[in-house]
Amino acid sequence: MTIRKIKLGSVVLTALFGALSIFFLLPLVWMMSSAAKTEKEVWTFPIQWIPEDWHFIENFKTVWMGDVSFGLFYMNSVKIALISTLATLIVSAMAGYALSKLKFTGKGLVFSAMMAFMMIPEQATLVPRYIMIKEMGLYDTHAALILMGMFSSYFTFLLRQFMIGVHNDLLEAAELDGAGFFRIFWSVMLPLSRPILATVGIIKFIWTWNDYQGPLIMLNSTNLYTIPLGMQFFKEEFGTTISVMMMASLAAIIPLLVLFLVLQKQVIKGISIGGVKG
Amino acid sequence: MSQHATVQKQLAAKDKRTYWTRRRREQLAGWLFIAPEVIGMLVLAVFPLIFSLGLSLTEWNLVGGLSAIKFIGLDNFAELFRDDRFLKALKNNIGFTAGTVPATMLLGVVFAAIIHKKLYIKDYFKVAFFVPYICSTVAVSAVWSALYHPSKGPLNQLLIQLGVADPPRWLVDTSWSLAAIMVIYIWQLLGYQIIIFLAGMANIPDELYEAATIDGATGIQQFRRITLPMLGPTTFFLAITSIISSFKVFDMIKFLTNGGPNYSSTVIVYQIYEEGFQHFRMGYASAMSWILFLIIMLVTSLTWITQSRKVHY
After folding, report:
1. Tell me: the pLDDT tens digits for A35-56?
2. Are the beta carbons of B120 and A11 separated by less than 8 Å?
3. What residues of chain A lie within 8 A of the CB of B55, using their CB?
4. N or C: chain A end with fewer CB closer than 10 Å?
5. Which residues in chain B are contacts of A86 at CB distance < 8 A?
């Protein structure tokens, strides 16, 4: 092996891109700095990146301990994102197992149909789904959002692609030991699929957490709001107080930002597998 | 494989003289495992699509209840093409796609190529450019709306200092609102494009570049003659998904401008939202939904057709 030479061109380019990436992230830096400022200081120009008059605690209190607390929106978002993610994983893993390892009549048809369903844009069926949810008596409930979010032919496809690669010997060994199909799925297939389940789960969690359109249409009561709707609510209440709005934005972004920084490999892998043809 | 055959035989031996042979059990299991997904798809995607086609032929104000449904044939579709707001939305949407898709893809492929071939600490750059993508669209919209503030915002303060006497009023300016939103959209999506292009580039064999280097090809020549052609499938995938998502843009527009000022930033999905969920004109909103669906189908099939002709690897 040769020792990698440090190329001057690359060093310069890396420094240049480093500067560019910081410039790229400036809006988020501005958000963080403004969340800690007084309203007056938010607007000073040139921008005061480090606040002179720290107002972090006051803004924090307005967002988290006001009449309507962000804490409530958090609880709702965590609940919906967790349950939807879990439900999607179960439904998609079951379907993925059937489509990858079981032989049954109509399998090919089901698979092609599912690939076709992927093309139906959610936005095109908003109206009828809203009417259906109303008729079912689920309007303005979290159940409506979970129900809407738990079926994904896209995730099923990703899981199926992974499960096809699981060795049949392992499944047959379990069958010889007397395991039924459900048992094979639960004790062999699921544990072996852990990497893909984690990847898909994180992506689904992020999508659900950030979903704005679904809750906007299905929810009405403020106490059921998720974080994106809570942002909307804050905009109506404090729209002109930017320091408070930035504190709310920060609160909306922080959990996913931390999750992303901790699990960056998983998230980036999850995003890339969709783009590489299977 | 003989081992495989023995296993199969052993399993078959267990099945003797029972109705629930292995094949029957597998059939049943297959259907049971697929059932939740299939039912969910039928109820939440296929049925609504057909239902909305039916609705699009009616005039129905939800407030009036089921008895208020009136069949009006194709009148909704006829109205669409006389509806200035819808036509504006359609025009804006096409402009939005034309403005954002080539820009993100071009920036994406160039940035990805530089990160892939030229930079140290690649992982840092992947993460840095990807951060906006995982942020809540609503939250980043709130940040940008402050940056865009017409009189006090940092952007216009900077422009004034640079000598622009009368900078655009961005989100509250009829001629700038859509462009201002496009900038946010590109900013948020760029990282996604970079990640996908990088994944594509990772699949290009290094030997190709080594051979080209020996032949004396410059970096830019290598990019044009090796990277771009080899990225065919990735580019195809990104083109389809980016065009489709640009036709579905909604969150930013709803949160920032409500399609305004004066419908200057409205798009198809926003009009569906306004007609369906604010005016409760379910039939009319469904007609719009079908137009959206047809546009997406058209885009997908067009790209498929051109793809199957051009790119073969």
Report:
1. 888 888 888 878 888 888 888 8
2. yes
3. 127-128
4. N
5. none
Query: Do A127 and A188 have their domain in common?
Result: yes
Interface ipTM: 0.90
Q: A92 and A14, same structural domain? A: no
Domain that holds residue A39: 8-63
Name the helix (H) or strand (E) containing B58.
strand B58-59
Select from A45, A63, A81 the last residue of a domain. Answer: A63
Cβ pair B285:A127 closer than 8 A: yes
Residues of A in contact with B274 (CB under 8 A): none
Q: Does B183 touch chain A (CB under 8 A)?
A: no
A252 and A179 fall within a common domain: yes
**A-chain residues near B234 (CB < 8 A):** 275-276
Confidence class of residue A65 from pLDDT cuts 50, 70 and 90?
A: confident
- d(CA B65, CA B22) in angstroms, rounded, equals 52
Is residue A26 one of the residues assigned to a domain? yes
Asked if A4 reaches chain B (Cβ–Cβ under 8 Å), the answer is no
For residues A34 and A125, membership in a common domain is answered with no
Give bridge partners of residue B148 from the DSSP assignment.
none
CA-CA distances (angstroms) from residue A160 to A12, A121, A153, B48?
Answer: 44, 22, 10, 26
Q: Are residues A165 and A223 in the same domain?
A: yes
In a mutational test of the B interface, the residue from A127, A265, A273 whose CB has the highest number of chain B CBs within 10 Å is: A127
Provide the domain count of chain A: 2
φ/ψ of residue B135, rounded to 5: -75, 145
Q: Are strands B58-59 and B70-71 parallel, antiparallel or unpaired?
A: antiparallel
B251, two tokens:
């969150």
Is residue A20 in a domain?
Answer: yes
Q: What is the pLDDT of residues B179-202, one digit of tens each?
A: 999 999 999 999 999 999 998 888
CB–CB of B41 and A151 under 8 A?
yes
